[in-house]
Design goal:
There is one protein chain. This protein is α/β, with parallel strands linked by helices. The protein is built from 9 helices and 12 strands. The protein has helices spanning about 10-25, 40-60, 75-85, 105, 110-115, 145-160, 185-205, 220-230, 250-255; strands at about 1-5, 30-40, 65-75, 90-95, 120-125, 135-140, 165-170, 210-215, 235-240, 245, 245-250, 265-270. It is elongated, with a radius of gyration of 20 Å. The chain starts with a strand and ends in an 11-residue tail after the last strand.
Length: about 280
């Protein structure tokens, strides 16, 4: 059974996240931990209980028999959700597009949770609705997107949609050491090889899945943002390098999270137990 941690505070963005979880629970067996984080004020405590009850009722109404646990926690949102995510398979949060300072869950920055979570984090924008578009995954030149490709393929299979693999590339900067400058054709062939390797991996495991690949000469952020407009889910990988005070500093996620019109899944690369998050 898959374990999902849902951050919920009754906001429009968290309602969208709740709907995403309910749709997923209708397709596969899941257990859901609904988490809200409160202050010491009595009014907020009362509201938190009401929000949790509403979320539980929504899930049980749409998925009879679903396992739901409610958690009302105190303290910082990011530490609380990161702690809850330690044994989760997926963490789901709502986001409000265009508002990078104030997000759902009482001002928590979803990037903070994405930066620290060992589980994939799905960020669902307010008022989003599923139109059955393909799942899109960003493919990197290194291995940091391998777990993301696996997650995206599983999601496409679960939701019965096609999978689109996207790889952005650019010409290498000129060398002043006298090295030979690679031709455009050579660089394209190298990056096409990156995509083909991931394509073969998916085909071997999901031979009947609808599959396409796009090789685009551009930066990763703008390329994925264009594809997001026609995606049911956009998936990116991260190796947690560049984490500064709980943020994915300089990552593609920074360029996407407040602008992507579809759910965004940030999937950490697989690490060994002795690897730190800031290596």
């Amino acid at each position: 059974m898959e374990s999902i941690v849902l951050g919920y505070d009754g906001s429009p963005a968290s309602v969208a996240a709740l709907s995403w979880v309910a749709a997923r629970a209708a397709r596969t067996v899941v257990g859901v931990d609904v988490v809200t984080v409160i202050s010491r004020f009595a009014q907020e405590r009362s509201s938190a209980l009401r929000h949790l009850g509403n979320a539980e009722g929504f899930l049980r109404d749409r998925v009879p028999g679903i396992g739901v646990q409610l958690h009302r926690l105190e303290g910082g949102v990011e530490p609380a959700l990161t702690l809850m995510s330690s044994n989760a398979d997926v963490v789901v949060l709502g986001v409000t597009l265009g508002r990078p300072v104030r997000a759902a869950l009482s001002g928590a920055l979803p990037l903070q949770v994405s930066a620290r979570s060992r589980a994939p984090v799905v960020l669902v924008p307010a008022e989003w609705s599923d139109l059955g578009d393909p799942v899109t995954v960003g493919v990197s030149a290194d291995d940091s997107s391998d777990a993301a490709v696996a997650f995206a393929a599983c999601e496409a299979d679960l939701t019965s949609v096609s999978l689109r693999l996207v790889h952005a590339w650019q010409m290498p900067p000129p060398s002043f050491a006298g090295d030979a400058v690679p031709t455009v054709d050579a660089v394209v062939a190298e990056h096409r090889g990156v995509l083909d390797t991931r394509m073969r991996w998916v085909i071997a495991r999901y031979p009947s899945m609808g599959l396409r690949s796009d090789l685009v000469r551009d930066l990763a952020g703008p390329t994925l943002l264009r594809h997001a407009a026609h995606s049911s889910l956009l998936v990116i990988g991260t190796h947690h390098r560049g984490v500064v005070q709980g943020r994915l500093s300089g990552s593609v996620a920074q360029a996407l999270v407040w602008r992507v019109p579809c759910p965004l899944a940030v999937v950490p690369a697989e690490t060994t137990d002795d690897e730190g998050e800031e290596d």
